[in-house]
């Protein structure tokens, strides 16, 4: 006996709602993985560009091959959503794992290619969604079953919107016009156009939800579990509305995808949805566990195998940066060349080390005490501090009694640093210093608006480790700094080693020279950081100016300057180095060689 044709119980509004949900997930996945690749491999412009390109090319390939799935659109749509709910979190964890592996540099391209497989797979599977949903929507419209009252309301609203936009479009385009009142409002919009519209709308909402809610409120790691949970929910909702209506057997009472794809896949969908839902509900612990594992392994990779054990003690994310506090313990053979104790506490901003106990004091003494030895310790000396949200540099400045304008963009970090136990021991409540003015503002914007000139400008800013820092290492930025110097003013900043970061050094010095800072005075901070009785170079700094300034005056400085005055008396002003064939870094024409790789 020939079975009667199957008529699905889906409604057009339901299919449109599912289109919205799955598009939200797919576009949000794109942003989640782009940010993940930025964390693991660095370079936000590069990673976002690659991720978007790979996602959309894979999306197109999936759409191109989707015709082979349209013979059984219900079963295949259920499969696609289940596969996405599985692939996305597993792919995310794969990238995390790859970021913790130690491998020869020659294998870096291979590791990078493997790391991109998850976003390629997600894009490929997402490419099936729109064609399958269009096929299902068209099959529903072909049935004569009367719509529900809710469906009729949604269709009337769609019709009114269609007509309203038609008036606007008619002013600029040649459009199809209908005479009289159409018998069915839905006829004015094809199934494909309607599904495509909800797909684009879902993509927009997915982007907004990720940027303004998931990433700042939930975090990067839990976000992927939230999205996978939504894919699983979409699959289960779809399955629950699909049934064989022509044969009232026990099998027909189960969702159609179970009958055609097997109970095993349905069980997998239930398990994955429950697991990702549990991970989403416990977003805090899950995010902390995964991030701690990743960062501990990543930090350990900076040392020889087995030389250092890292344990993350705290991590949080502000709007502008990720903050990680951790203990590092020497486990290598022989004497510890990094610090005197067995274990010390450190803090990082994103991937760059900001402070460690063994050199926190000497770093700030080198940044602040050295340039201020050239000026009087009075409020007549004007200082601009850019960055320094940990307040440690401010502590050194208040000891000199100078007037300070303090500009930092990350107000959340500055507020938390006031009470953070680790940072508090270095700033001694300097945020209460009476002769300072603090602004939570972009430094570029402040310099453009201010007419104040300064004797000393201190740059206590993150290293050039990511595209986001490129403007702070540009010709335009240093030109603004130069214009805010007094006649004898200087800029003090920490700089990278010429031996370890030669590409950065050449691009950096050509940049500052182009900005008119043609004189430089390199120097180091000094300290016995490993308690072996010998003084070591701790951090490299450079004074910059449009012309040579007076020599340093260690005898007018602090106890630190007096202790190492023989070293600072030897500091001389030289011409800022220039390198042939190296382009300066500009805001609108960046030179990515200035980034630390």
From TrEMBL:
Give EC number(s), comma-separated: 2.5.1.16
Query: Which InterPro entries does the record associate with it?
Result: PABS, SAM-dependent_MTases_sf
Q: Where does the signal sequence lie?
A: none
**Any Pfam family the entry gives:** Spermine_synth
* Residues spanning the membrane: 12-33, 45-65, 77-101, 107-128, 191-213, 219-243
- Output the Gene3D superfamilies linked to this UniProt entry: Vaccinia Virus protein VP39
User: Which UniProt keywords are present, listed alphabetically?
Assistant: Membrane, Plasmid, Polyamine biosynthesis, Transferase, Transmembrane, Transmembrane helix
Q: Report the residue ranges that make up the PABS domain in this protein.
A: 292-546
Coiled-coil spans are none
Q: Which domain of life is it from?
A: Archaea
Q: Which GO terms describe its biological process?
A: polyamine biosynthetic process
The Swiss-Prot or TrEMBL record annotates one GO molecular function as: spermidine synthase activity
Active-site residues annotated for this sequence:
460
Give the matching PANTHER family. THERMOSPERMINE SYNTHASE ACAULIS5
User: So what family is this one in?
Assistant: Belongs to the spermidine/spermine synthase family.
Record protein name field = Spermidine synthase
